Amino acid sequence: MQTVFLQSFYDGMAIRNTQRLAEEIVGQVDSDDFEKRLDAWASEGSMLIFLTDREGGILYSTDEHSAVYQKKDAGRSGGSNPYREQEGLSWQEGARHNLPSDYPGFLKCLEESSTGQVGYKSADGNAYIYGQVLPESSRFGQAVLYMSTPLGGAGAAVGILRVQLLWVTLASLALASVLAWLVARQFARPVAAITRQARNLPDGNTEAPYEAGFCKELDEVSQALAETAETLHKLENARRELLANVSHDLRTPLTMIKGYAEMVREISWSDEERREQDLGIIMRETDRLTALVNDILGYSAAQSQEPELTRVDLSRLAKEAVEQFAPLAQQKGLKIAGDIAPGAQVLADEKHMSRVLCNLLDNGLRYAQNQLTVQVKAQEGAVHVEVRDDGPGIPPEELPLVWERYFTSKQRGGHGSSGLGLAITKELLTAQKARFGVSSQVGDGTAFWFEISQVK
Questions:
Q1: Three-class SS of residue 107?
Q2: pLDDT at 93 over 50
Q3: Mean pLDDT throughout 304-314?
Q4: 174: burial class by Cβ within 10 Å (0-12, 13-18, 19+)?
Q5: In terms of pTM, does the model score above 0.85?
Q6: Which of 119, 164, 186, 201 lies 20 to 30 A from 125 at CA?
């Protein structure tokens, strides 16, 4: 910007200064010290100034050196300027020889001007020429003011600036290269750490070699990779557990189905009564196998799926669960008593909450002897849900184990359970940050409960 536009800025400023100075000269033309002021203005503005008549006769002349000569030759008669006394001529005649070569053209332009003013650049563009006709009332009459100021003064400055710009550019490039290398080195380190972190994902390595703090965006990428690694780790564990569960839990019913099918083929195919018994066992084991597979899939889903939290009316879900299990309870000769407070609103996953209630009711119906009680009430900013049966109860040493997979109490017996219902319930409640537990007395029934924060 400096090297390209400095000259035009300089030219514009010089032209404006010349025009402003011309106004001052016209305003001070009748002052007593006009000549001294004219010399000072010419010196300060680096100008050549002439006052002439309409035919080009010199009335007064000065330039940027006139003020210096006046001080140096103050002892001379009239304070004359030796610049005006060339070859023994009078100062007017010497000055006439120093009129610009284009002065006749200047006078012609001024005469053709309707405003009595003229301003233009010289033919070579190195000077600005300005002229004006003085007022007739001035002491010089209608004299002509001629002013010339050079416009090439910025050339040397531009050259200096170009040299400076070259050195500044080279220094800036060197400094920028060093800074870029340092920043790239600092930036490459965490990027490499994130790359290693991403490559470790297929191996199940959840350790994060990345150190947070260098860049917010990279921190977020690393955090996303860590969360992805954790999710993949959970999915991998769920997959392995699913395979282990399938191989462990399906072996017995499959063996029985195959054994009784072979028995029907080899032995009881011709004995209708025996054949019906064996086929009944096969069908019962098939149903057991189906229920077991569903429980295993439900347990795996509970471990891997994130809950979708919405506003849920837990009172309504509890009533629906009681109505759903009422016919089954009636078949077993049991009664379901409901103590459900209305309007218990919680922030939870509705499907998961419905599954939890069904699992607890199903578990209670397996062991209840006469009655099953479902209670829903609000207390201290939370909703408390409890399912109590009047069964044989659970020994104290077994209470911590009831939430584990495949555990069945010796006191209560299996009752055809896969041992996964309470484990699924535990996973679903943990995912929704709910408190849960169990209380029991041998011979006095068991109560399973959970609490979840209430919303208004």
A1: helix
A2: no
A3: 82
A4: exposed
A5: no
A6: 164
Q: What is the pLDDT of residue 242?
A: 61
| HEC profile of 288-335 | HHHHHHHHHHHHHHHHHCCCCCEEEEHHHHHHHHHHHHHHHHHHCCCE
Residue 130 φ then ψ, to 5°: -130, 135
Over residues 201-230, mean pLDDT: 72
Consecutive H or E run containing 276:
helix 272-304
**CB-CB contact of 151 with 128 (8 Å):** yes
Please name which of 399, 371, 403 lies closest in space to residue 387, comparing C-alpha atoms. 371
Q: What is the CA angle 92-93-96, rounded to 5?
A: 85
The tokens for 134 are 């003085």
- Whose CA is closest to 308, among 271, 350, 278? 350
Q: Is the per-residue pLDDT at 94 higher than 50?
A: no
A 10 A CB-CB count for 289 gives: 17
Q: Which amino acid is at 307?
A: P
For residue 261, the tally of other CB atoms under 10 A from its CB is: 14
Neighbouring CB atoms inside 10 A of 350's CB total: 18
> Do 391 and 343 form a contact (C-beta atoms < 8 A)?
no
SS3 277: helix
Q: Tell me if 421 sits within 8 A of 428, measured CB to CB.
A: no
pLDDT exceeds 70 at position 299: no
CA dihedral sign, ordered 39, 45, 51, 55: positive
Amino acid letter for position 428: L
> At a CB cut-off of 8 Å and minimum separation 6, what does 120 contact?
109, 128, 129
The answer to whether residues 330 and 368 touch, using CB atoms and an 8 Å cutoff, is: no
DSSP secondary-structure letter at 134? P
The strand pairing partners of 48, in sequence order, are: 148
Relative to beta strand 345-348, strand 335-340 is unpaired
Helices 314-331 and 350-367, packing angle to 10 deg? 30
Cα–Cα distance, 72 to 393 (Å, whole number)? 127
